[in-house]
Amino acid sequence: MEKSCSLLVHFDKGTPAIANEIREALEGNDVEAKIDAMKKAISLLLNGETLPQLFITIVRYVLPSEDHTVQKLLLLYLEIIEKTDAKGRVLPEMILICQNLRNNLQHPNEYIRGVTLRFLCRLNEAEIIEPLIPSVLQNLEHRHPYIRRNAILAMMSIYKLPQGEQILVDAPEMIEQLLSTEQDPSAKRNAFLMLFTCAQERAVNYLLTNVDKVSEWGELLQMIVLDLIRKVCRTNRGEKGRYIKIIISLLNVPSTAVVYECAGTLVSLSYAPTAIRAAANTYCQLLLSQSDNNVKLIVLDQLNELKSSHREVMADMFMDILRALSSPNLDVRRKTLDIVLELVTNRNINEVVLTLKKEVVKTQNGELEKNGEYRQMLIQAIHSCAVKFPEVASTVVHLLMDFLGDSNVASATDVIVFVREIIETNPKLRVSIITRLLDTFYQIRASRVCACALWIVGEYCLSLSEVESGLATIKQCLGELPFYSHSEEDEGNDSSKKAQQVNSMTVSSKRPAILSDGTYATQSAASETAFSPPTFVQGSLASGNLRSLLLTGDFFLGAVVACTLTKLVLRLEEVQPSKVEVHKASTQALLIFVSMLQLGQSPVLPHPIDNDSYDRIVLCIRLLCNTSDEIRNIWLQSCRQSFVSMLTEQQLRETEEIRARAQISHSQPDDLIDFYHLKSRKGMSQLELEDEVQDDLKRATGEFIKEGDAANKLNRILQLTGFSDPVYAEAYVTVHHYDIVLDVTVINRTKETLQNLCLELATMGDLKLVERPQNNTLAPESSKKIKACIKVSSTETGVIFGNIVYETSNVHERTVIVLNDIHIDIMDYISPAVCSDGAFRTMWAEFEWENKVAVNTVIQDEKEFLDHIMKSTNMKCLTAPSALDGQCGFLAANLYAKSVFGEDALVNVSIEKQVDGKLSGYIRIRSKTQGIALSLGDKITLKQKGGI
User: Fold this and answer.
1) Which segments of 161-271 does DSSP mark as H helices, in order?
2) CA 440 → CA 359, 434, 445, 553, distances in Å?
3) pTM given for the model
């Protein structure tokens, strides 16, 4: 069994020191050589060597040394050597050590006394400690605070020993007296810590006696006071009223660490609105006063937790939280916006939107490099506000439309999606939005934004003037026809061949660039973002945005242009009385369609038009040549109706989620009537009265009972040993974010006393054992509970394994019982989450770890299999239910979840039903880290069969 040790020393195994060399160096008079020899001896002892022959040498030649470093190393040596024999009795030669320690405790040098007292804190042998007690007590009255504070720590460690209460009978009383006279903050803190640990009632009495002075105590002592309050209130909730006053008095101290702990303690102890408001105010002040971004993120996490349980109180704090947007860090801004958006109500929506508008305007100065990303976050936030509260849409939509030409494509895309939704949900804004969109259409630089803007123009230009303006704007942005001439085609062939020779080493895609003389050349293009500044075609007219994008080979946009022109011409037939004008517009549209097809089939561009775009443009030509009423209805009405149904379904899903969240905290159908004025006050303050009322409310709605779910506890009990083993053990596993707590119950099933019974644990994966459980002695047929704490650092399936080791009086060898492995389930760290389709696609493209799992299941229904995967992986389906309806033989869906460590887990399920009725396909998992991708893949492989 490994022993616990308080020091860690690097040891080079390649050049081990020889005991004889160490002994010679220790016997010499050279102090530096002695220091080096002591370090080598300590390293050897820590790595398993015994070196019994060195003990007498060290007693003779090292104990008398006056050098401080030598004395410090001597104490480390004494700490790690074996001080007892096989039966647990102290070795007789340790008497020599006692005399040296007593001399050190009475040494005139404060440093020697101090390090010796610290050494006593790590000594467990009562026989060695007992003769030193008078010297330790003398040091409590030493003039130097360094010695006093270490003497108190030594007393606390001694008092905690099994025989400590007999060795130091009146220690708590002595420390309490010392506490009343002590002036040094650290010594005072140590004294109060000892009372808190060893005599809690005395600590409570001292605290209540000095309530008025708590705010004047030092920072270290105030932190211990908060620990004491938490412990007392956890065991006896009825007494928390008087402690809450102490906490509130500490909220005004200058130490930010104490203030932060006070706020957390207040939230954990009280549900009273006054207490919650005080804690929230404290967090907001810390948010603004601290410059460290990590601190800001931690405080925002605390505010987020407060928001989920005390939304009404937090709704009044939204402006204080919004001030955190002044931080340049994007993560801080993102968390701030997420919190504020859930606090928006009818009362504060105008102030929130006004603040967001000011922030959007600030992003135009271009000073910060990430202004584009920040602007995108703000646009999404404003979009969310406008969807929840349509009345504010009119105040923001025109401001945001100024950013349709933004160089950040994602930001511009968010704006146009917002405009598309607002123009449908706010009919009163339709005319102004269409007018503004047509005026600013030429500024749009991105293909995706152009496509969405064209769809809006085609669907929402209803009057004669709007339709004519729409047609004129599109024609102007397309420029003169044709898009190229035959002479340019010949020149383009020659120049493109030359350009291809020059750029033969370029790997990326090729797109045409128009040179100053009007000829074409190919260029490398890394992404679709936006085109270069306007260029000249045929040397006569500057090209519009649509023309430039078409000349880059973007024929999907060409198909969208064709569809938009077709809709506008069809609507023109309904609103234009003059048939001549209708035919004229139809002819011009047909000419544009034919020109786009010619451009797509010409050798000027590096790649021809794709079949899908070609078929769509040809369909538009046929439609304008021969239109029926049924086709007209499909083009002018059905498309918009599909969009309306999509919005309706999306709003319905959000409403259902809000309703489901609202119903979680209510366990009774009847509303509780609180007779506030009839409650007995018993001399309580307003805060205590509020707290009592809130406790009654929580108790009535079953929120206190909800924590202790007996059925859930039974599911988490794991059997570690067999029923026939001499020691039976089972563990109750509690997973709480970054910690795993194992409560292991050990039962001695034999008729013998088991000595030095130890639970030895080891971990695999990103798990770390915090401290090793102590040895225990088990009487015949008795039981013992052993607790072990394990830290978790990432979302990865980990394994805990180990042994139970014990000794009996009859057998000299130790008995080992191997325990069953404990597998930590990844599902304990993953929770369903929601993200937009755009964010999902972006993360899917960025994440580098992918795990591809082949579908192998007995389930034959696609929807049933998807539900089974969602339940098994604890993920949420982002694909709309309407997209999953029907029986078409195949299914594709996106799933999303987030871990407690902030990691994203993306899953794409693509399955198809074979002729024999079985399902085939793949489940692809992507994440930023390898652990979550592999663990989720293993989980899906294990669970996908169904019925497991």
Assistant:
1) 164-167, 171-181, 185-198, 200-209, 219-235, 240-250, 256-269
2) 22, 10, 11, 24
3) 0.69
